[in-house]
Design a protein that fits this description.
By secondary structure, the chain is α+β, with helices and mostly antiparallel strands. 61% of the residues lie in helices and 11% in strands.
Length: 298
């Protein structure tokens, strides 16, 4: 196996300044994410009787029924879950989550003073879901959570080992949205489910990024020429890996590289110029570290 990227220097211990900078950066993103979620809840969803899933959804229904403070409900209901998650998810995650939930409690009280944006249910669902997804995504990217049900689902999934985290969350949220159909009008429960779907897709975009890369595996007898052409034309590193043909039982050399999705057409042209019969397999890659990888410039 041959690598054409520069040797990676040994990791150095972080200085005190770097640790403080990382802490401040994370705190800023947690605060920013909490305020975005608060805007989604107070200016789009709750005034129109549309809820999120999990603890936030339960808190929104209780706030509607009792007129209690939404931020206080979110904080109080979440705290037992945060305490229970201490052993399972670790000290750092629990502290970050405590900060994020605390900031959301404050943010909802600040944002609630402003008038809601619109009463158009379709606009509320779409933009409320997008804002909710952006805010939650930023918080998840910084090693924290706003939803105690997610933490409990993670712990139960590890213990039970027969259901996944996603299945447990789906069951919990199905129960919450069923109750919402009785608390609010039935159509608001359906709008809530649609909001949850939009938010989940937005969270994926925030966590994975819009600028996805592609991993490419190329099998060809002309692997050296293909590898050299890729490095020259696309300015990315390649790796050669030994493989064996299933039918031929002959040793092959597979060329592996990671390219931006916008460069895929160019890569195929480069490969086919060398070998029109080359076998090419591509897969989505959500994060790339430690290799020479050229990002697309918009």
């Amino acid at each position: 196996m041959f690598f054409f990227n520069k040797p990676k220097p040994q990791d150095k211990a972080k200085t005190r300044a770097e640790i403080i900078t990382a802490f401040i950066k994370r705190a800023v993103f947690l605060i920013f994410g909490a305020f975005i979620v608060a805007v989604a809840l107070e200016m789009f969803l709750l005034p129109n009787k549309i809820i999120d899933g999990g603890v936030i959804g339960i808190s929104m229904m209780l706030s509607y029924l009792t007129d209690w403070n939404l931020g206080l409900l979110i904080f109080c209901i979440n705290m037992p879950f945060v305490v229970l998650a201490y052993k399972t998810l670790g000290k750092k995650f629990v502290i970050n989550t405590f900060v994020a939930i605390g900031m959301l409690a404050i943010a909802t009280n600040v944002v609630s003073r402003f008038h809601h944006i619109t009463e158009d249910l379709l606009l509320v669902t779409i933009f409320g879901g997008i804002l909710l997804g952006i805010g939650v995504g930023l918080i998840l990217r910084n090693n924290a959570s706003l939803d105690g049900t997610e933490m409990v689902s993670l712990g139960l999934s590890k213990k039970l080992k027969i259901v996944s985290v996603g299945e447990l969350l789906m069951f919990i949220n199905l129960f919450i949205y069923t109750i919402a159909g009785f608390v609010f009008e039935r159509d608001r429960a359906f709008y809530s489910i649609l909001t949850y779907y939009i938010a989940s897709k937005t969270i994926d975009m925030v966590l994975e990024g819009l600028d996805k890369a592609k991993s490419v595996r190329i099998v060809s007898d002309n692997y050296k020429e293909i590898g050299n052409s890729i490095m020259k034309e696309l300015d990315v590193s390649v790796t050669y890996m030994k493989a064996m043909g299933g039918y031929s039982k002959q040793e092959k050399v597979m060329t592996f590289c990671v390219v931006n999705k916008f460069d895929m057409a160019k890569l195929k042209d480069v490969v086919h110029d060398v070998d029109p019969k080359a076998f090419i397999v591509t897969e989505d890659v959500h994060e790339v570290e430690g290799v020479r990888f050229k990002k697309h410039k918009h």
